């Protein structure tokens, strides 16, 4: 599968030599591993703040490619979809997947070997069993009062 993210021409292991705040837009985008886990609906307990992940994917998510079908214009359809930047990352880190590259680097942790920037292939995230490709149900076909039945452990 070709990589929908342009990771060509980047300095080797740039994420180890620069701070997140120093990354160019291209470097920032290249950090996304394509796991798709941030496109799953979560259930948050108002009292405890605990976040449970469900297999119910956002309406724009394509389960077969593990990508957003309308990424560039997604806010026309899903206005609540977050824009992850250096300033919004601290607000969202608590619910982002444990393996999300942005969260890992923000926490001072290394990227895993299956990350496309290290493996050189966008498929390695799927081969390592980290992504949610072919593992979701549609938001359209799953009423919100049934989401609790679809709570899953994060694949890590
Ligand atoms: S969880 Fe992080 S690394 Fe995975 S698709 Fe979302 S932004 Fe990219
Ligand atoms: S709009 Fe696209 S990027 Fe945002 S959660 Fe939905 S599928 Fe993911």
From TrEMBL:
Signal peptide per UniProt: none
- Domain of life assignment: Bacteria
Query: Which Pfam family is one of this chain's hits?
Result: CxxCxxCC
**What InterPro entries does this protein map onto?**
Puta_zinc/iron-chelating_dom, UCP006173
According to its UniProt record, which protein family does this protein belong to? Belongs to the UPF0260 family.
**Cited NCBIfam families:** PRK05170.1-5, PRK05170.2-5
Q: What is this protein called?
A: UPF0260 protein SAMN05444007_10637
Organism classification: Bacteria, Pseudomonadati, Pseudomonadota, Alphaproteobacteria, Rhodobacterales
């Amino acid at each position: 599968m070709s990589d929908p993210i342009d990771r060509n021409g980047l300095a080797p292991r740039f994420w180890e030599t620069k701070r997140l705040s120093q990354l160019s837009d291209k470097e920032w985008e290249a950090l996304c591993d394509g796991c798709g886990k941030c496109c799953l609906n979560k259930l948050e307990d108002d009292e405890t703040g605990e976040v449970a992940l469900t297999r119910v994917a956002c309406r724009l998510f394509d389960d077969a490619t593990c990508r957003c079908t309308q990424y560039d214009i997604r806010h026309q359809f899903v206005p609540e979809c977050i824009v992850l930047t250096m300033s919004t990352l601290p607000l969202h880190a608590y619910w982002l997947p444990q393996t999300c590259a942005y969260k890992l680097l923000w926490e001072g942790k290394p990227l895993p070997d299956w990350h496309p920037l290290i493996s050189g292939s966008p498929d390695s995230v799927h081969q390592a069993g980290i992504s949610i490709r072919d593992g979701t149900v549609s938001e359209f076909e799953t009423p919100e009062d049934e989401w609790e039945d679809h709570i899953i452990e994060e694949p890590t």
